[in-house]
Specification:
The chain is built from 11 helices and 4 strands. It is of the alpha+beta class. It has 2 domains: about 150 residues, Four Helix Bundle (Hemerythrin (Met), subunit A) (Up-down Bundle); about 90 residues, Nonspecific Lipid-transfer Protein, Chain A (2-Layer Sandwich), CATH 3.30.1050.
């Protein structure tokens, strides 16, 4: 795992990148439907704003966060939808300003957590660097939905290492969301970074391996592309199975994306 300050720098850069995607669009474009059924561009930014509001509270006001989490415990999806209603009705300029403010406030709050201390989160307490990496995963996923809706191609960067490592930590989420028992055997991810460097995560002698471009891997684990459209390979029966169910977030997998839904080259 990268040092906290490095992860936070990457998180801040990703916040800025997503903000830039929508900074120059008109009000009608904010209402453009995205590939996520029922969500338009404003909904995507509203969701991210909610996530960063939660992260800020978790790091800076743990008791406030625990109260929010407790109120949503029985119906987290309902809480997410309620948050959308709270933020997505704001005028675009105000919503964008709120997104930037909450995002940067969460970066500052996570950076202020004393070394060695964890912060509360939705299921288990997390180290600040892991929670920051979760934010990077959210930004990548929902930023991709926005980019797809607006017909924009984002250039991947080596900041994706944070997402790749987070996916290593959350390997079992895809099993858990489907009521399956995760395998005991470890996985190894052998990825090629956007700059061409090798990223090897997991035991060298692991029998179950996933290999391919890190950008494709990020698209897979956020379920923003179907595996059939990605240059990823599996070694081992369990790794092959995992390519169908991979997800780096808790809860329902969602509909995912269809094979061939996007015809643009991702490489």
């Amino acid at each position: 795992m990268s040092a906290l300050n490095d992860v936070l720098k990457d998180l801040s850069a990703d916040i800025d990148e997503v903000a830039t995607l929508v900074a120059g669009i008109d009000e009608a474009a904010w209402r453009t439907p995205t590939p996520a059924p029922g969500w338009n561009v404003a909904d995507q930014i509203a969701h991210l704003t909610f996530i960063f509001t939660l992260a800020k509270a978790a790091a800076a006001e743990p008791e406030t966060f625990k109260a929010i989490a407790a109120s949503a415990a029985g119906d987290f999806n309902g809480a997410v939808n309620a948050a959308l209603a709270q933020f997505n009705t704001l005028p675009p300029a105000e919503l964008l300003a709120r997104f930037r403010a909450e995002g940067e406030a969460s970066v500052a709050a996570l950076g202020a957590v004393p070394e060695g201390q964890v912060v509360p989160w939705l299921v288990n307490p997390l180290p600040p660097a892991v929670l920051a990496s979760a934010g990077i995963m959210e930004l990548f996923a929902h930023g991709q939905d926005i980019a797809d809706a607006l017909g924009v191609r984002r250039e991947p960067t080596d900041r994706l290492y944070n997402l790749a490592f987070f996916a290593f930590l959350t390997r079992d989420f895809g099993y858990q969301s489907r009521g399956l028992t995760p395998p005991a055997a470890p996985f190894r991810f052998e990825l090629t970074s956007p700059s061409g460097e090798p990223w090897n995560i997991g035991p060298e002698d692991a029998a179950q391996k996933i290999a391919g471009p890190a950008h494709d891997f990020a698209l897979l684990v956020t379920r923003r592309r179907h595996r059939a459209d990605l240059a990823l390979t599996a070694t081992g029966e369990e790794a092959e199975r995992w390519l169908d169910i991979a997800q780096a977030y808790r809860g329902p997998a969602g509909e995912g994306r269809r094979p061939g839904q996007f015809t643009d080259s991702e490489e």
